[in-house]
Amino acid sequence: MDIPKIVVLTGASGGIGQVCLEAFVRRGCRVIAVDMNIETLERLVWEKGWEESVEVVRTDLRRESDIDDLVRVIGETWDHVDVLVNNAGIVKRTPTDTTSLEEWNEVLAVNLTGTFLITKALHPLLQRSKQGRIVNLSSRAAGRPHLNASPAYGATKAALIYLTRHWAAEWARDGIRCFAIAPGPVRTPMFDTLDPLQRDKTLQDLPLGRLIEPEEVASLVLYAALDCPEVMTGQTFHCNGATYWT
Ligand SMILES: NC(=O)c1ccc[n+]([C@@H]2O[C@H](COP(=O)([O-])OP(=O)(O)OC[C@H]3O[C@@H](n4cnc5c(N)ncnc54)[C@H](O)[C@@H]3O)[C@@H](O)[C@H]2O)c1
């Protein structure tokens, strides 16, 4: 029998996070499920009877001390980590003129700096895996202006594609592979923060004609994390409903 993979999944309480969590558990992984809001997650784990497979850790990725505590907790049980999925993210709906510095900084703090800090902190444990995988949740906003979101959102998602390539090159010799997933609009609570008019317009503009399901994103996350050929690294997998190709 294969040794279970040790997976750290951020934003595990969210729409894409919960579906990824279930998919990893079904594949026999041990998951450290990280989020700043853990009440729903704890209930889910209890209802599904996943206590053996999932450890829930409350972490606010805006706080370096929380990330240090998380890494300490992981290190008490595991001597390595196989997979890190940087899925936590936030969006603000303001245009440039009304985006305050505070709001700009908050989006950067979660989506970009939080990803940088947790990845840096977990690098020694990923290195010890000898086959570490990092999967970053970017967005189609990285490659196409997303005018229903603040400019900070697309800026962070484009930066994640850069970091994906940077870490792919920097840590290739450690056996670490790094990927980004760039979805278009996905049926999750984040999409629901659009007002009804924006939602209709988004759907009308989407050649696919429907929202992307979180299960479709999760299948790409698992492919990148568990199944992708060893020779591949640094790629961004686009699932944007036929909006653009690169
Ligand atoms: N839903 C979409 O249409 C869509 C499209 C493209 C990309 N994405 C990306 O996919 C990822 C997941 O999105 P989702 O739709 O599941 O969103 P979601 O809002 O349902 O979930 C995001 C999760 O991140 C957590 N989180 C937020 N700030 C945090 C912090 N400081 N520390 C720890 N956890 C924090 C939230 O509590 C939440 O559980 C995000 O990075 C998002 O940008 C989403």
Description:
There is one protein chain. The chain has helices spanning 15-26, 39-48, 64-77, 101-129, 151-170, 196-204, 214-227; strands spanning 6-10, 30-35, 54-58, 83-86, 133-137, 177-183, 236-239. The mean pLDDT is 97. The chain is an alpha/beta fold. It has a single domain (6-238), classed as Rossmann fold. The protein is globular, with a radius of gyration of 17 Å. The chain has a 7-stranded parallel sheet with strand order 3-2-1-4-5-6-7, sandwiched between helices. The structure holds nicotinamide-adenine-dinucleotide. Nicotinamide-adenine-dinucleotide binds at residues 10-11, 13-17, 35-37, 59-62, 87-90, 110, 114, 137, 139, 183, 185-186, 188-191.
Uncertain residue ranges: none
Continuous helix count: 7
CATH topology: Rossmann fold
User: CATH homologous superfamily name?
Assistant: NAD(P)-binding Rossmann-like Domain
What's the CATH C level? Alpha Beta
The largest sheet has its strands arranged as 3-2-1-4-5-6-7
Q: In what range is the share of β-strand residues?
A: 5-15%
Helix content: 40-55%
Helix-strand makeup class: alpha/beta
Terminal CA distance reads 39 Å
Main sheet makeup: 7 strands, parallel
Order of helices and strands: EHEHEHEHEHEHHE
Associated small molecules: nicotinamide-adenine-dinucleotide
The residue-averaged pLDDT reads: 97
Shape: globular
Number of extended strands = 7
